[in-house]
């Protein structure tokens, strides 16, 4: 089995192909980014090759905040160990990400869970340094909220709005109110597409000054929405002022 077959990296220099094809072809749910802690990653149920469940719900992309405790540069990637209060896990960072990984520094990563030689690890497709340590606390709250959501469904809005969402808006403006947003209750497919595209742009462009490429957005939502639907949703978000174009075919959230 080649390394690419086991979760390695494509050689294509195009930004949209930095994520291995088998991850781009996953059956993405409407909300495909879930905040987790290390323990949830380690004990996630591996139901099939690179298919995982947490709280009996299939997950795709995850977000994790922790401290880098060791770094091991390798030929085509950077391998490092990240730690939070629940444990440690190995992370492999795609080589085209030009972000320096420094020991003892807190970082936020976005990526996919993988199973290799009976060990769970994370393939990171995005990384940013944590500069405000409130982000660590707020990520913990995100993990608690999303875990309860996966177990019990949508939480009462009044109780979470005052104690949680408002605290985030007032104390940490640069973070969204929750990394895991309840699916749209609208009955129209158009609104669901727009909500999902808006979420995807916000999450994937968070640590980039140029934003995220349109092709990457389309491929992230492949399997749920057609290319035309995603592009129409991007146009609508631009018209509404929710996202803006930084350069040709690159978009970022306001």
From TrEMBL:
<keyword id="KW-0238">DNA-binding</keyword>
<feature type="domain" description="Replication protein A C-terminal">
    <location>
        <begin position="166"/>
        <end position="247"/>
    </location>
</feature>
<dbReference type="InterPro" id="IPR036388">
    <property type="entry name" value="WH-like_DNA-bd_sf"/>
</dbReference>
<dbReference type="Pfam" id="PF01336">
    <property type="entry name" value="tRNA_anti-codon"/>
</dbReference>
<dbReference type="GO" id="GO:0005662">
    <property type="term" value="C:DNA replication factor A complex"/>
</dbReference>
<feature type="region of interest" description="Disordered">
    <location>
        <begin position="166"/>
        <end position="186"/>
    </location>
</feature>
<dbReference type="GO" id="GO:0000724">
    <property type="term" value="P:double-strand break repair via homologous recombination"/>
</dbReference>
<dbReference type="GO" id="GO:0003697">
    <property type="term" value="F:single-stranded DNA binding"/>
</dbReference>
<dbReference type="GO" id="GO:0000781">
    <property type="term" value="C:chromosome, telomeric region"/>
</dbReference>
<feature type="region of interest" description="Disordered">
    <location>
        <begin position="1"/>
        <end position="21"/>
    </location>
</feature>
<dbReference type="InterPro" id="IPR040260">
    <property type="entry name" value="RFA2-like"/>
</dbReference>
<keyword id="KW-0539">Nucleus</keyword>
<dbReference type="InterPro" id="IPR012340">
    <property type="entry name" value="NA-bd_OB-fold"/>
</dbReference>
<comment type="similarity">
    <text>Belongs to the replication factor A protein 2 family.</text>
</comment>
<feature type="domain" description="OB">
    <location>
        <begin position="62"/>
        <end position="124"/>
    </location>
</feature>
<feature type="compositionally biased region" description="Low complexity">
    <location>
        <begin position="166"/>
        <end position="184"/>
    </location>
</feature>
<dbReference type="GO" id="GO:0035861">
    <property type="term" value="C:site of double-strand break"/>
</dbReference>
<dbReference type="GO" id="GO:0006260">
    <property type="term" value="P:DNA replication"/>
</dbReference>
<protein>
    <submittedName>
        <fullName>Replication factor A2</fullName>
    </submittedName>
</protein>
<dbReference type="InterPro" id="IPR014892">
    <property type="entry name" value="RPA_C"/>
</dbReference>
<dbReference type="GO" id="GO:0006289">
    <property type="term" value="P:nucleotide-excision repair"/>
</dbReference>
<dbReference type="Pfam" id="PF08784">
    <property type="entry name" value="RPA_C"/>
</dbReference>
<dbReference type="InterPro" id="IPR004365">
    <property type="entry name" value="NA-bd_OB_tRNA"/>
</dbReference>
């Amino acid at each position: 089995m080649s390394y690419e077959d086991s979760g390695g990296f494509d050689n294509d220099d195009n930004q949209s192909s930095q994520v291995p094809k088998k991850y781009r072809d996953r059956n993405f749910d409407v909300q495909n980014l879930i905040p987790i802690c290390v323990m949830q990653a380690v004990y996630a149920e591996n139901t099939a090759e690179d298919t995982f469940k947490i709280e009996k719900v299939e997950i795709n992309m995850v977000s994790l905040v922790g401290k880098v405790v060791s770094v091991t540069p390798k030929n085509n990637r950077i391998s490092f160990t990240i730690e939070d209060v629940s444990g440690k896990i190995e992370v492999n960072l795609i080589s085209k990400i030009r972000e320096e990984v420094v020991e003892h520094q807190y970082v936020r990563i976005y990526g996919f869970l993988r199973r290799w030689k009976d060990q769970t690890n994370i393939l990171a497709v995005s990384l940013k340094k944590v500069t405000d340590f409130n982000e660590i606390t707020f990520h913990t709250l995100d993990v608690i909220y999303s875990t309860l959501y996966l177990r019990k469904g949508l939480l009462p809005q009044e109780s979470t709005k005052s104690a949680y969402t408002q605290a985030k808006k007032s104390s940490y403006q640069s973070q969204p109110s929750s990394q895991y947003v309840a699916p749209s209750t609208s009955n129209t497919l158009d609104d669901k597409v727009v909500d999902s595209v808006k979420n995807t742009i916000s999450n994937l462009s968070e640590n980039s000054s140029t934003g995220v490429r349109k092709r990457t957005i389309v491929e992230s939502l492949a399997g749920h929405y057609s290319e035309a639907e995603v592009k129409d949703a991007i146009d609508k978000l631009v018209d509404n002022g929710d996202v803006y174009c930084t350069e040709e075919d690159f978009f970022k959230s306001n």
